[in-house]
Queue: 4 jobs
Job 1
Amino acid sequence: MRLLWQVQSRVIRPFGRVDLVSRGPVAENPGDLCDWVTRWPHWHDGRPFLLNADGIPASALRDGGFWPLMTPATVALLPLAPPPAQRANLKQKWRNRLNRAQQMDMAVRQQELTPDHWLLSAETRHAKTKGYKGLPPAFCAIYAAANPGEAIVYEALHQDRPVAAALILRHGRMTTWQIGHITEEGRRLNAMNLVLWEAVTDCWRRGHDMLDLGILNAQDAPGLTHFKLGLGADAHCLGGTWVHLPCLAPVARVLPLALCS
């Protein structure tokens, strides 16, 4: 049985240290995930444990003493393929916008992320304006420093001015669209379609086979959801957020399964 998972820890009063495993564990054989639910206490010290599960059935988590906290989120996962097949998978409107963007006077350049890149400050301003929270831009700068060549910015230029950019983080065979920003001029030029297309084809050429486009939120961000699905992404439902507390585990194990889905 070969599994990998990453533990993040934070001190939260009055609970003390709380551990988090997000989007894990990852198993070479998916069938091993249910075994992990029974084995993880051998590697843990019994402190509060949060799990953003992916691929583990709700029944297995309940039987392992996990209590459901949040319903599952849905992410957009884009399988990567050779450019002709990738283009054929685009939705018609997305493909039309890409065609128009490719006819404009735009060029896409790529470079490794630097701490002073304008995309990071643009993301900070945008998050403050829109009132959303995610991983801070400083995380991206740290990731780039710790993983040279694995944080790539794809940037569309029009008349030598940046009009759109996307930050792609590379990790193993997968990649993640971490940050994106577009100006009003870029919207008029469909620049983000061009940026993402260049990023997708470049990631495939580098040997990656999947691009994680992030959470789908049709209620609060219908336009972005439509954009991601138009690229040909599949909607992948995660396993929700669960907590394991030794005092709560016996009660969790007898919860009706309908309350855990």
Note: Residues 79 and 208 are 9 Å apart (CA to CA).
Job 2
Amino acid sequence: MTLRPSFPPWRRAARQVLDVLFPPRCAGCGDDVAQTAHLCATCVSQLHLITAPFCHCCAMPFTSRAAGGPDLTCVACRENPPPWREARAAMVYDDTPRTLILPLKYADRTENAALLARYMAGAASGLIGPDCVLVPVPLHRLRLFSRRYNQAALLARALGRLTGAAVIIDGLERPRATRPLEGLGRAARHARMHGAVGVRAYRQAAIQGRHMIVVDDVMTTGATLAACTRALLAAGAGRVDVLAAARACGQHEQQ
């Protein structure tokens, strides 16, 4: 499986022309960079990438290997195990990831999906295999209409291009609208998302028995990802994992 797609010569030439006409800018701070959809060295240094040791159930980073215990599982996940098998996230959701994810989500900076997907592919090393299927967290149709695109779907498509994994963009649906989860605690988030996600009937055959990976931009308490996971398992998925661009930690987890 390759993480670097091969582009035809005409596309590379077109990119060079565009770089001359519109010099590439850092997606984080706007400074000059060598390539489009990349970060400058300063912004890269400010990323807190999530590498081992971290909780295999929720991707929360540990301060040390000993802090994770023998099974590398945090206390919260031992007490309330999530419905998915394993979770990965590329980076801690702090200042620099916010400058990438919030514009992707709300300000039409769709080019940031390709940048974030590169980090997600690295975080998912050993998780994304040749037989897995990526499925994005869905938006309700009213929210999709107002935003015009689903940022999780853009991330899933970009990951599919990088890794060669299959992608089912419309595998999940949100048949009813839910009020925003911001400001709610863990229990309230999970209660609000109960039954809010389902599998589209015409996609059930493609999901049964498969290794599914649910893709989202930010993982906080995992309420939305849990709703997606339960829907996939109920539809017959053989295994479900979750993958996010960023993991909210500490003071960010209730946001």
Note: The longest helix spans residues 9-21.
Job 3
Amino acid sequence: MDREMPPFDRLVDEAWPAPHRVEAEGWIYRHAGGVTKRANSVLPLGARADLPRAVDAAEGFYAGLGLPCVFSVGAQAPPDLDRVLEGRGYRRVDPTLVMTASLAEQAVGAVPDVEIHDSPSESWLRTWWQVDGGRHPDGGEVAAREWAERILGGVGAGYASAGAGMAVGRGVPQGDWLGIYCMAVDPGARRRGLGGSVLRALLAWGRERGASRAYLVVTMANAGARALYEGEGFGVAGNYHYRIAP
């Protein structure tokens, strides 16, 4: 892996795996019942000889599921893809930053009052779903939260909680990297430092498991979360956005 330009598109996909996925000449069609754009979008890895035809094929796949076609456009997407999608009327939404930090300076050991387990407890799931996941409505044969649990269970991870489960986070060991996901604090428990405690505990946990660097993704609009991450030593290393069919 190139230390200057790691494949964040792939790392994010591996850490947040859609239960249903189809590979098509290097592109991945992901489906998880509409729960999160990340798990319900095309991951276009690399160039295609006929780009418009490739987009047609992706649109046909999602039309067959009764879902809008969404593309995740990151560093590994074909250079002309954004232009082609814009020309078809796709909306650009959720510009997102990839932030990274070195774990060399992170303390090894437990952070007081933070517990980390290898599966999410009911209180962990309830907090995360209330803060971040509950915007996904039910309506299909599989409940939205069950889709979310399938995503979470698709890869080994550590589930951290603090403040009697009022603050949670998820760490995914990926070799040299630790992915940080699902950072959420109950609205009634904010401004008490719980989010920072969860993050520091996950970073220490990841370092104990061999990671030397951590990454996370955060929307550009989430100023509060960005400030927290910057305060813990994270800096911007990349970005991506989504394009949604009209």
Note: The helical segments are 8-15, 51-65, 81-87, 122-133, 144-152, 194-208, 223-231.
Job 4
Amino acid sequence: MTFFQAALIGIMSCTAASTIACLGTTVGNYTLNRPLVASLIVGIILGDVQGCILVGIPMQIMWIALVTPGGTVASDLRAVSYIGIPLAYVGAKVAGMEFGGADAQGLAGTISAMTGVIGITLFYGTAMMNLIWQHIGWAQLDKGNMEIVGKVDCLFPLISHFVLSFLPCTLLCYYGSGAVQELFSYLDTSVWYVKALLTVGSVLPAVGIAILLKSVISKPTDLIFFVFGFALAASMGLTLLAATAVGAVFALINYQLMMMKAGGVATAAASDDDDEEDI
């Protein structure tokens, strides 16, 4: 990986951060920050879109349940997306792994878990610096310095954001890719401890699915629909778009049945009211 490629990935890390709405929360945090979207961008930068997307898929599944409900502040995925994907891609490529294979997915899951810790550090580091700038701003306002408002709201946060987002991502991608290349050029992936590490990484996407199910399932019978969907997709060999289309049809049928049931209850209630009035 060249330094120019690492710098481009660092710029994308800045725009995708959730602690500063460079492009708005919807575009930044909820779109560019997601591993599946980031894998496309990283793939364009590195010149292998398919390989990066295949590496990013297990990372997306791992963090699929990471949402921001209400006022809850979730972890920042910029390190997972823009540090984890490039390093996992380089490692899988050097080791000769098939990008869609179990070993590459296990490697992606392992690196994703490690880089997730870096993302938390970047997130709270940026938030802490923003609080410091605001404290400085209030202190200057008490002294009558009105010019500080624009600086503490725009200029200073951008500088600290650049230092805490662009530089770590760029340096880790540039020097980390070289370290990963050197490591996997000598590392024997058939050794038992390497196999164990990759196996643990391949299990992590299942944890993401489990967290998602825990969030959306309100009663045990709801699990039947998910099991049916997974079984149907596996037995029929459906792609993601085909599985989405099949799920949409079942969702529409379920919605129509619920509306018919609600309409029947309302009709029955209205008829009871008419009978009471007649009496």
Note: The longest helix spans residues 102-142.
